[in-house]
Prior knowledge:
The chain is an all-alpha fold. It is built from 32 helices and no strands. Among the domains are: 66 residues; 153 residues, no CATH class; 45 residues.
Amino acid sequence: MKKVKSKKPAKSLEIQSSDSEAELDPETHKKSLEKLKEVDPDFHHFLEENDENLLNFEADSDEEASDPEEDDAVHTPGPLQADSDESDFEEEVTLKGKITLKMVSEWQEELQSEKKIKITTLSSVIKAFNAAMLRATSSDGTSKGEYKVEGSSVFNAVIQMCVLYLPGAIKKYLGMEQSGKDPQKCKHFVKIKASLVAYLNDLLKLLSGVTSENILTVLLKHLHQMSIYVACFGRISKLALKKLITLWSSSEETVRVLAFLCILRITRNQQAVLLDLVLKAMYMTYVKNCKFVSPSTWPGINFMRRSLVEMFTLDLNVSYQHVFLYIRQLAIHLRNAIVVQKVENRQAVYNWQFVNSLHLWSDLLGATANKPQLQPLIYPLVMVITNTIKLVPTHQYYPVRFHCVEMLIHLSKESNTFIPILPFLLEVLTSYDFNKKHKKVSMKPLDFSCILRLAKSQLMENGFKDAVIDRIYALLLEYMANQSHSIAFPDTSLLAIIQMRQFLKNCSVSNYTKKMRQLLEKIEENSKFIERERSKISFSLSESKVVAAWETQISTAGTPLQTFFENWSKINRIQKRKKVTKNDEIAGELPMIKRKKISEDAANTVKAENKEPLVLFPSDSEDEKDNFIMEEDDQPKPKKKLKKKKDLKLKKNKKIAADAVDDVADKGDVVQDLSVNDW
């Protein structure tokens, strides 16, 4: 039945359309379609799904009536017309939001204007920065948003405008130019809050995607200006600190310093909330990045250690909990190594992470010696350091011993606390046989600054004994110079004097005995000086305040050992700088001995008379011969006399050369020292 019904209306519709093909009434067509809907609803539904234009006959006829002169090209399919309309609309929006250099200059003038800054200007600038950031981070170099940045010139102009003028404009808008108050307490902060969050997020994304040192430097300086606003938002603060701590630990020198300044400023603005997290994160990053030590990594490790000391001194009450916990962890590792005598446990102590942690805490406790909060931790730290020396007191681990002694000397000097350090140095002089002949010759002197453990092959070299004597001499001199003003110096130095005399008696190597004898003489001289000054006092030794005042007076006036140490340290510092800067490689031209040049006429005469082939690189003897003007052939001289004259001339030139070398030696090193930071 349905098939029969569907054919009949179709035929009637077909006949109707053919009969009225020249002139078709829309109303009649509409009535027939309504009738079709009643007669055959299935076929009407079929037309709705497949031929919608036939049912919308009225709309098509209206379009034809409006444009009667159009030809067949007007009857294009509907979907194609719709697509072309949408593309035209999109092009209109893109052109509307395209940023030009003229727009950037106008915004820049408004940001620099002395009048009141409008919120619309700030939001437009921040949206422009977002568009520039999207262009920089997108894969195809385009940005989708309210604004669009095209071309590198516009991109650079937008970034430059934000970096140079946006911080000042925000301050002016919030009214913070003179007050310096918290931005969150400003009247208009609520209006700009959302824009600030968007801008800071974009800035951090841009900072994460940049690798160039120069661009990082510019962005970090800008972030330092914006740090006061970063601290207002907890989530952004944590993201910023995470990125900054990474830059602080692993970038170039300038970037490290700027990253630390940003960390310091953000933390200070929200110290109660952020300090705890920052201290923990920075310490863990420091430990991770000081695992390997070399001359190239030493400056970075030293910078991290000093900046960490600065962070811990912000609030000593908060720092105490961290320092106590980390020193306790070091003590636990050391106890396990002492109790369980295994290689794994010893390696947990004798590594750079452990040693650098001890170095950090000794620097911190020395820097805060005038404040009482961290002073109770000096004793446990000293016990950890001394037992680290005693863990494996063999020759192979002398470098660890010297590193630990350096920490103890620094801590004793800064905290004005007596620490028995002499036994750890004198033990080396008495326990090791320096008369033993070496089996190998060192090509380079051993440097213990970047070594913790020596190989067995290094123990057989002559450089090992030289380096040990040099380190003992330097550490003994420094420690005794620090204690040279003490009223008890003659008593505390007695053990050192006895053992050094014993070493001089047993050692037969002149280079070693010469150094130790010089140091022994200075210690004895200082001991006699303190005894003379001590004989003049009239107060009791139990009066601690009077004794401290007397020691301060002696230290201010200067002691013989202290004066000697200051002169020695100057020379040693210069040598260390030369070593760091490799002056031997960049010394340039060495001083040359100038010789008298003969005149051109004499030279021509010699060439004409000798008529010998030209030699490009004559030997020294030929050079000397050229300085003489030979006589004519008819007046020859005996060869013996000529030889004597030649010998006299050679002797004379050698004497001139020796005098020149002596002059250079008297003047000292002709190479100027470069100003490079100490290790």
